[in-house]
Design brief:
Elements (H helix, E strand, L loop, with lengths): L3 E4 L8 H15 L3 E2 L11 E5 L9 E6 L11 H14 L2 E4 L2 H11 L5 E3 L6 H4 L14 E6 L8 H7 L8 E6 L15 E3 L5 H10 L2 E4 L8 H8 L4 E4 L4 H5 L3 E4 L21 H11 L13 H11 L2
Parallel strand pairs: 1-2, 1-3, 3-4, 4-5, 5-6, 7-8, 7-10, 8-9, 10-11, 11-12
Helix pairs in contact: 1-10, 5-9
């Protein structure tokens, strides 16, 4: 029964956790693991990996991969939403956190320290191998930044767009992946902000590769796939000091403080983020644009991330 595994959330067309699960599943298969679905197979996998929360399987070593949790103090169902996550946290054998930030919030909210490993997200080869292809949309734009997320209020696209109204950024374009679907982004948008549809991974990789910087100012993100993708493409990142994004960025970008330090164990009005100083964002953009293309981040290759999971598996 050795070298068998199951992942309960794996979908290349899903959200961030499902996309990562699919990438990890493919890479584990590549290094000789066998995928055993206990719901369709009489066997039990040696390693059961649940993402966020899941079913504890008898006769398996149960791993739980965690990023953030529900923190919104304005949502009356926050406690209810967290219950299955906390239940899995207490009952699974080993926790795999996306970041040190993730570990700290779970320990703060549960009061329990678990056997754990911290493993950042990994991405597939198209982000490392994207072709260099200069972006030209206007003769007035000399540099391009990219922003990408499943846009919601705490991702701070409104604040990012506001910074690009500043005359110091008049020759800097902002490409917003998935921005067409986010209604607030259309309101009084400056001409140097270009809203794009959701793109395939291959097309996203081209945008990341040929942008000068990525802007990711999300409040309390744990380990965003989009940031890992940008770094894999060799593009530096501007991010907020709170959350786990700065751990992922490391020396390959600029970290700015645009709100007070988060107090672990507290809920916050997540979709009403603190007001920020636009000047701080503008100065951060100018600083990150001074960084040349970064060294290749082999640690973010999904094959290397899968090897780290294999080291933890039994």
């Amino acid at each position: 029964m050795s070298k068998t595994f199951f992942i309960d959330k794996a979908n290349h067309s899903g959200g961030g956790p499902e996309i990562f699960g699919a990438r990890l599943k493919d890479s584990l298969l590549d290094i000789g693991y066998e995928y055993v679905n206990p719901y369709y197979d009489h066997r039990r996998p040696k390693n059961n990996l649940s993402i966020i929360f899941g079913q504890h399987l008898q006769e398996s070593k149960n791993f739980l991969r965690l990023d953030g949790l529900y923190l919104d103090s304005n949502d009356k169902q926050t406690n209810e939403k967290n219950l299955p996550i906390f239940h899995s946290y207490e009952n699974f054998d080993h926790i795999i956190f996306q970041s040190e930030f993730s570990k700290k919030i779970y320990e703060a909210f549960t009061g329990t320290k678990k056997d754990h490993t911290i493993i950042h997200n990994g991405v597939t080869e198209e982000f490392f191998n994207a072709e260099e292809m200069p972006i030209f949309l206007s003769q007035d734009i000399k540099h391009y930044c990219v922003a990408s997320a499943s846009w919601r209020r705490h991702k701070r696209l409104e604040e990012t767009i506001e910074a690009f109204r500043d005359k110091r950024l008049k020759n800097v374009g902002l490409l917003v992946l998935g921005g067409l679907d986010y209604a607030p982004a259309h309101e009084n948008k400056p001409n140097n902000v270009i809203l794009l549809d959701r793109l395939s991974h291959e097309d996203s990789a081209l945008i990341y590769k040929n942008s000068n910087a990525m802007i990711h100012l999300c409040w309390l993100d744990s380990c965003p796939n989009s940031v890992a993708e940008s770094l894999a493409a060799g593009t530096p990142v501007l991010c907020s000091h709170n959350g786990g994004t700065k751990e992922l960025v490391g020396k390959d970008g600029v970290v700015i403080q645009i709100e007070e330090d988060y107090e672990y164990g507290t809920r916050v009005p997540l979709y009403d983020p603190p007001k920020v100083d636009t000047n701080t964002i503008v100065e951060g953009v100018l600083e990150v644009l001074e960084i040349e293309k970064i060294d290749q981040r082999d640690d973010l290759k999904i094959s290397n991330v899968a090897s780290k999971y294999a080291d933890v598996f039994v």
